[in-house]
């Protein structure tokens, strides 16, 4: 029986490839249009601000993982901060769910781009069907082992980043490098809450950096390399996203971007390079989304396995063979498939943003309240991170609540259900004296 974790199996380059792999996965293909819808001509700036917010967010993860580089990063950080409490399990589940939501976002994006190549009016049936098919395929590859995922991630990260940059250069070249030429004439009548809501969505394009902390133990020299690989990943992503934003903005107006919001990159290639450009962009999008899904499925099943080991979530085999990580894979895939089948892209993205920002605030608060001396964290950075997160979350709920209250209600009730479930589970479990480890604050 070989262990599921392999210590020191990821080099710095492989770790950065994995981080950028998850980040550039759907982020840019699905979110460019969604972000432009709220930020208007300012959407490249929303990606810049989102990178800054993510940089502050990454700080908590980096300082804690420098001292405790254990696999399952987020669950461990929460456990160190709050002990085996309801909030630990609930916040870790929120993170797992936001990753699962991200998987359904990626899968739907894959399907939406694929259908650009096929002239069909059956999109409503085909998008969820293809999305679910892709999620199942990712599951099958995940079962076949860790090494394959690393190799696929590395190869696809190179193709993806290279392909996206070629797309950006071609689009800008077609527009004579007149940056955002189409956007300059746009009315910039967007409010600050609109812009902050756009930034909240853009943050989803960066949150892949948490995949790196989830793989803490598997990174070579983690004390040094986890922080480095997170910073490098964020910088690479920012460069790619800005290039894409300017490219899309130089060939399409905001109205055109919003009209094609689920596949705006393919549409942006059309004026620049014609139908061949669309095909090229779609192929890059398919590679990016498929590989992003692979890496994310792996990370989330690891995290759920970790929570099960920490006795923070119950485990039922449902008569399935194999170890816990295999089972958590099955749960991940079933949940992601249900989401991909029943929600559209903007609703999926909205839930993801709300879950993720809330979980992020809980992590910073935990580090601030309980761990800041232990890991010698700078208080001002933690406070700025929390304030930025809270601003984005508040603005997003405010804007979304006025346009699509349904998804706010679904998100709020899901979060309430997660907390209630954890509380009930831990109470009953604790009553049985099953939580054996005491928690000490330093």
From TrEMBL:
The chain crosses the membrane at residues 12-36, 42-64, 85-105, 125-145, 157-175, 195-213, 234-258, 278-305, 326-343, 349-367, 379-399, 405-421. It comes from the Bacteria. The keyword tRNA processing does not apply. Pfam families: AA_permease_2 (PF13520). It comes from Kordiimonas lipolytica. The keyword Transmembrane helix applies. This is APC family permease. Keywords: Cell membrane, Membrane, Transmembrane, Transmembrane helix. It is found in: Cell membrane. It is a multi-pass membrane protein. Its main location: membrane.
């Amino acid at each position: 029986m070989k262990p599921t974790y392999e210590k020191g199996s990821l080099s710095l380059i492989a770790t950065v490839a994995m981080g950028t792999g998850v980040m550039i996965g759907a982020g840019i293909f699905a979110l460019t249009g969604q972000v432009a819808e709220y930020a208007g001509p300012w959407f490249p700036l929303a990606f810049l601000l989102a990178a800054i917010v993510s940089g502050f967010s990454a700080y908590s993860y980096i300082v804690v993982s420098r001292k405790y580089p254990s696999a399952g990063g987020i669950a461990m950080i929460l456990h160190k901060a709050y002990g085996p409490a309801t909030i630990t399990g609930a916040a870790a589940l929120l993170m797992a769910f936001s990753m699962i939501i991200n998987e359904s976002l990626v899968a739907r994006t894959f399907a939406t781009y694929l259908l650009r190549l096929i002239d069909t009016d059956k999109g409503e049936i085909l998008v969820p069907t293809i999305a679910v098919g892709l999620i199942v395929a990712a599951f099958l590859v995940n079962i076949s082992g860790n090494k394959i995922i690393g190799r696929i991630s590395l190869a696809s990260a190179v193709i993806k980043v290279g392909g996206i940059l070629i797309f950006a250069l071609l689009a800008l070249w077609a527009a004579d490098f007149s940056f955002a030429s189409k956007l300059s004439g746009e009315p910039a009548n967007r409010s600050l809450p609109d812009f902050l809501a756009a930034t909240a969505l853009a943050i989803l394009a960066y949150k892949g950096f948490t995949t790196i902390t989830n793989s803490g133990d598997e990174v070579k020299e983690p004390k040094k390399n986890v922080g480095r690989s997170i910073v490098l990943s964020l910088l690479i992503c920012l460069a790619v996203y800005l290039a894409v934003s300017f490219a899309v903005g130089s060939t399409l107006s905001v109205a055109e971007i919003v009209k094609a919001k689920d596949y705006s990159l393919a549409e942006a290639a059309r004026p620049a390079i014609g139908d061949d450009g669309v095909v090229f962009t779609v192929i890059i999008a398919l590679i990016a989304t498929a590989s992003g899904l692979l890496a994310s499925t792996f990370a989330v099943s690891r995290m759920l396995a970790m929570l099960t080991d920490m006795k923070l979530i119950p485990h039922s085999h449902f008569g399935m063979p194999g170890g816990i990580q295999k089972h958590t894979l099955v749960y991940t895939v079933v949940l992601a498939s249900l989401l991909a089948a029943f929600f559209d892209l903007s609703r999926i993205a909205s839930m993801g943003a709300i879950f993720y920002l809330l979980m992020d605030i809980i992590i910073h608060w935990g580090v601030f309240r309980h761990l800041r001396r232990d890991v010698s964290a700078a208080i001002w950075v933690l406070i700025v991170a929390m304030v930025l997160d809270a601003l984005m979350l508040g603005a997003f709920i405010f804007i979304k609540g006025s346009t699509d209250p349904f998804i706010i209600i679904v998100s709020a009730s899901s979060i309430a259900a997660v907390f209630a479930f954890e509380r009930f589970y831990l109470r009953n479990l604790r009553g049985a004296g099953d939580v054996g480890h005491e928690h000490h604050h330093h």
